[in-house]
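thread from #wetlab-drylab

HS: before we spend reagent money on co-crystallization trials with zinc ion, can we at least see a predicted complex? here's what I'd submit
DV: go for it
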Amino acid sequence: MKDTFSISESSITFDSLRKELSRDKPYFQELYNADILVLPYKSFKEYNSPVFSEETESFVYHAKNELLNKPANIELFMQDDKYEELELHADTVNIPLLIWDYLVHPIAIGLVVNYVTGLIKQRNQQVDIKLESIITKNEKSRKISFSGSINDWKEAMESLPKDFWDDDILNGNPRIIEDEEFKWLADRKSEAVRSGDETTANEVWKIEQISGIWNMYINAFSTLKEKSNHQEVWNTLAQIEIKIGSLRKHYNFSNQYKLLFIESTVREFQKLFPYKFFTSRESIIKETRCSICGQIRSLRNPCGHIKGELYNGEMCYREITDIELIAIALVSNPVDKYAVINIQGKEYNYKLLDTFIENLTNPFDEWKVDIIKIKDPVYKKVGRNKPCPCGSGIKYKRCCMKSGNDMMDHFEFSLQKDMIKPDLIGKRFIL
Ligand SMILES: [Zn+2]
Ligand SMILES: [Zn+2]
């Protein structure tokens, strides 16, 4: 049999089923706890109780057994007598229509594969499968129809989650990646490590990093909208830069997952913060430990792991175990952007940021800012040889005109839709 594989939009989701089906019927109650459902192809709602053929029943038994220690429930909603006769064709196994939540995708694939592999062994002959499945995610669902060999189905299905995930993100629907999803990724990574599949483990690391970047960026955006915790946002933006930097070594991204957008927009946001000076630490790192093997590093005793490289889905970094601080310097272009100087009694002015953020509704709105120097209005009409308005007592041309203290930053914003000039005159900074 030639493989056929097709994907189409579906209107069935767990939510739509729950709405449609009455809780009164005992066999519908289970629906509320299910992650995987076995559905009839048609008209099952007219039956008083679910009816199903032998093979379907055996599949459900198999599935329930397999799921004993896994975080998923399977439930049966079945009326597939139409397919009963087909089961007699020994070379094609008809798996009933399955619907599952995206989060249990790998588990569901495993169930079907194990079931069919078992049958093949039992019958001692190759069989093809015919299967329709619906995968739901965030109220959306896709129907996947397949007929062909189980191995091809497995391969096709395993390549799906990424597409599903892409879809959401590439459409620019800002959304926080949930803990459950991180857990799912972590599980896949452990599985890969256990089976010695380092390539997959490292792929999962990339997805984890991208998800982390997304969450940080979306959180930073909403905190900015709340006009609170500016310094925390600043730190988050600095972390995003670092994460993107380490990801780039391993992942050649164009604008997939909007990473380039996030990277450049982080820089634009940073321009709007009033921080101009940072502390910088000069120090000697005396001893470090490898994060992969835990060994103390020395020239004589290299552990073989390279900083920044991936090992079994983790990036190697150095933990500093001994450091000697030599000096703290005040710098304007720091390596470490966290070290914002806070002076007691002085508050930073975030008016520029707070005013501008009003213009944005979505973290993925496109905008940029150009900073140009304009003359401070106070100095506009002052003659070169007149006393300097700053009150120093010397001539303007020898004072602020020479030092550039008479110029100020002017921020020009361009937004995706139209160019606006909200006339946001930024103060230099208030320290
Ligand atoms: Zn090591
Ligand atoms: Zn002056």
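DV: Residues 41-45, 78-89, 418-431 have pLDDT under 50 and may be disordered.
HS: ok that's useful, forwarding to the group
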